[in-house]
Amino acid sequence: MYSALFRVVHCEAINVGGGRADVLVTFPAARFNVECKIEENDASEAGLHQYVAQPTEYQNTNPSFAILLALDKTVGAESAVNLFDSVWIDEVQRQGERQPCRVVVIRVPNNRDNPNRLRPAM
User: Fold this and answer.
1) Cβ pair 24, 39 in contact under 8 A
2) Please, are residues 80 and 74 in contact by the beta-carbon 8 Å criterion?
3) Of 33, 90, 105, 113, whose CB has the highest number of CB atoms within 10 Å?
4) What is the dihedral of CA 101, 4, 12, 32, to 10 degrees?
5) Looking at residue 76, what DSSP letter applies?
6) Radius of gyration over every alpha carbon of the chain, rounded to an integer in angstroms
7) How far is the CA of 59 from the CAs of 11, 20, 55, 66, in angstroms?
8) 15: which DSSP letter?
9) Cβ(79)–Cβ(112) under 8 Å?
10) DSSP output for 32-57
11) 53 exposed, middle or buried (CB, 10 Å; 0-12, 13-18, 19+)?
């Protein structure tokens, strides 16, 4: 069965910018990638900054835009941060380029060991 995303979204795309992109979104004129991480120690903005250079390397011949998606395992569901504290834009200035690559960082709080055990409230 085919969906609207057939041949648009590719997972574990090999040989992209000399590496393997976790998720590659390809449109006729441009493409961007989504780097996926699981963070168990420091999911703060400063802590996730260590990962922002990685998705920019896969964008060396495309628009200076990438996404870093981080599953935050440092907080429980009851202390999850709000949406506005969980999405921001970071910039990475690559050597030889005039404009920095912008990386949209999305932190998804989740520290449930067994999410498949969750049931709707009665």
Assistant:
1) no
2) no
3) 33
4) -10
5) -
6) 16
7) 16, 12, 7, 7
8) E
9) no
10) EEEEEEEESS--SHHHHGGGTHHHHH
11) middle
Rounded Cα distance between 33 and 23, Å, is 6
Look at the pTM and tell me if it is higher than 0.90: no
Angle, CA of 78, 80 and 81, to the nearest 5°: 145
Q: Could you list the pLDDT tens digit for every one of the 122 residues in the chain? A: 556 666 777 777 766 666 677 787 777 777 788 889 999 999 999 999 999 988 887 766 667 888 999 988 887 655 556 778 889 999 998 888 888 889 999 998 876 666 666 667 66
Per the listing, tokens 């703060």 go with: 44
CB 90 within 8 A of CB 65: no
